[in-house]
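LOG
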Amino acid sequence: SSGINAEWPLRPGYLLRIAAHSKLREDSNFRVFLEYAKDLKVRSKNKKEIIGGFFKSMTKNVDEALLSGQKDKDEVFIERRTFLEDYHNRIKETTKKSELLSASTNGLSVDYMQVAGCLALLSTRDPTLQRFMAQSAITFESLQKLQKRTSTDEDLKLTDLFKYYQRETQAAKSLLYRRGRALADKEIAESKLEQAQKKFKDIPTAEAYLEDCKIRFESISDMAKTELETFKNRRLETYRKHLVDMSELQIRHSQSIISELTKGLELLKDL
């Protein structure tokens, strides 16, 4: 578990959600994953799988476009769909900005290391400035380590968080898509029943199909309401925790940087 926590802080919570799910916790693949003691090696997709995934994705995108004009009478789902579309676009932009922030912070740590290297080199060229340059190089090396740690924390506490909820939002959108597909199937079944009644033909078959579609639609609607409400509550709690943690880490890193600079200046004064 320590390896999982170090690699991705959000993963333990994700696994706990699966374990708490009424159906997924009984999945045999999930049990194998939890009980497997060795390192997991996942093979890359072959060409057939890549092409199959492409056509499946393309078919889904076309189907989503066709369902976009669907008239939904449930105001709750209309509001959730609108929110998720807007939220997903915003979280994608936020993820990009967070990646740029982390890259900028990491770039500063690289600059510190280059400055430290230059100062160390100068200390060997000019005997009169040897101690001054050497001590300055040590200070910048320490600053580089602190800056690198700050960059890592930004990745773990911000960028990974946004990437995680980018995927979570896509999963919520997919759930609403499946509900929309079930609603379309129900409407088609109602139309087929009307045609069967007009022709006085295959009425029992049409009625059975409509009943099956209604049950599927009601089932996925109930599940979607529960999942979306859980998604909302969990999102707020997770964001609050990670942002508070990130704020505390930023304060700690800033204090460490100030302390290192102060110590460095004091040592330079004593030379």
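LOG (cont.) second protein
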Amino acid sequence: MRLVLLGLCLGSVASFLPSPHLTRANPRIRSTPLEARTESGDLVQSLSRRAACLGLGIFFSSPFAAFADGGASLVENSKIREGGASTINNQRGARKTITRGVQLDRSDFAGDDLSGVSFQQSQVRGGNFKGSRLAGTSFFDATLDDSDLEGAYMNQANLEMASLANCNLKNAVITESYVTGATSFEGANIEGADFTDTFLRKDQKKYLCERAKGTNPTTGVDTAESLMCQ
């Protein structure tokens, strides 16, 4: 659609380009003021159309064009998979897409590489992250209730203040992750999950140890061992 509009715009400019005789001395213009005014008017109109096309070009190449396509509230426009809206440049190859406060309930990210993506304060209830790579992904203050994270790789994920109530964390690798006392694992399935080097508050650790069972198929670590259950 943008190419069509740009093509029409360029076509309009071509049709109003000033004639070559306007760039040279022309006795007709000096002798017939009416013709000069007419041709000058055509030149002004041509320049106006060029300015309008330039404005369209700037619009289509700017971030504002995204709003014309539906806005950032839609999953396909939030630039999650494209890696846009980068906020960190101090690490080579690093990216951190911001989706702060976005409504993403029941979104399907199964098998996707979402490393470094920030779902900060977003609603992702019932989301599908099965088998996803979530290394360094931030779920700070996010709601992940009833989401499927089976087999997800979550090394150094930020789970501070996140709600993972009734989540399926079976066989997930949640190593070296960041957790606070406000992080909720209530009702979560942690069979085969690896929590190695993830610091938990005493009451959280006690709660998870009561539910711990199985061995992580990726790391070979027992869930109870990773939680240092007594």
